[in-house]
Design a protein that fits this description.
SH3 type barrels; Porin; 14-stranded antiparallel β-sheet; 6% helix; mainly beta
């Protein structure tokens, strides 16, 4: 029953984060202001001052004094006490659209289930949950090596009968518009009716062309079960298009060896600076198609 308790705790956590946002700091502790960011930015960047009262100001620092800064915003040049500043973010000027900050896509390394060609930067990570029953954690060990893994949490099933999975990934090519990675999805499946344990997974290569706001992704993967690999690769194609500050459209599509009908998926990604929620549908293309398809849901919390 341990897995059932963990499942309920995880579900409650995601509900709280979705409704109220992710808390600042851990354990309720206030993070001190990084004063090294109190500087005059170059012309290609702007700053966002997040204030202690919860408000934000977008502009550029013009002068740094001992206890205050002169800050130029659309309201003019104002004097801001340093003690009132909670955080300073320096972002590309291109990320400000119609006076609002378009924060980076927090889930740029995956479509729905499939990875993109991008790898996490060193020190970046995320917690994810697919269909509620498949949580995982991923972390950027270096700028090119990402490791992740998790265990299923089917209620009422002991830990010895759960599915364990491991997702290493290497960023072979890491650029602004073109990224290529190679990796694996490795899974341990328990014997539900005997003591046999099977291993299965996919070895893949995947490339992503475009920015985090508009991209096309394609990949090839060889599946295996036990020690037997498939004779032909499976093919994945998909993409993401950011329609607004907090919404993007996502599609992920698969062609499996020997299957007559491709598997397709489509949906919407809702996100903030750290949290994204995917709502989509999965169906097939061909005679077996049905609309809108099987519902899909996942949550990703970046840290």
């Amino acid at each position: 029953m341990e897995s059932k308790r963990i499942f309920k705790m995880l579900l409650a956590f995601y509900v709280v984060v979705f409704l109220f946002g992710f808390p600042q700091g851990l354990g309720g502790q206030k993070r001190p202001l990084d004063k090294s960011k109190l500087r005059i930015p170059d012309e290609n960047h702007v700053q966002i001052l997040n204030m202690e009262d919860g408000s934000s100001i977008i502009g550029r620092t013009k002068e740094v004094r001992e206890k205050e800064i002169l800050f130029e915003s659309n309201l003019g040049t104002i004097t801001v006490p340093i003690e009132k500043i909670r955080e300073v973010k320096e972002v590309p000027a291109s990320s400000i659209k119609a006076g609002k900050y378009w924060f980076p896509n927090p889930n740029a390394t995956r479509l729905f289930f499939a990875p993109t060609g991008r790898a996490l930067d060193k020190g970046e990570g995320y917690m994810a949950d697919y269909y509620l029953f498949f949580p995982m954690v991923a972390y950027g060990v270096t700028d090119r090596i990402t490791v992740g893994g998790g265990v299923s949490l089917f209620p009422g099933i002991g830990i010895d009968k759960q599915i364990f999975y491991f997702t290493p990934k290497v960023g072979v090519l890491k650029g602004e518009k073109l990224n290529f990675s190679a990796g694996a999805l490795l899974a341990r499946f328990p014997g539900f009716f005997d003591d046999d344990v099977e291993t299965a997974g996919i070895l893949y290569g995947v490339a992503t062309l475009g920015s985090a706001d508009a991209s096309f992704t394609a990949g090839l993967g060889y599946g295996f079960w036990g020690g037997d690999f498939g004779d032909k690769p499976m093919v994945m194609m998909g993409g993401e298009y950011r329609a607004s500050r907090r919404v993007s459209f996502v599609t992920e599509n698969w062609v499996f060896p020997g299957a007559d009908e491709p598997l397709i998926s489509y949906g919407i990604r809702f996100f903030g600076e750290n949290l994204s929620i995917d709502l989509g549908f999965i169906t097939v293309l061909g005679e077996g198609a049905f609309f809108p398809g099987i519902p899909y849901i996942d949550f990703v919390l970046k840290f």
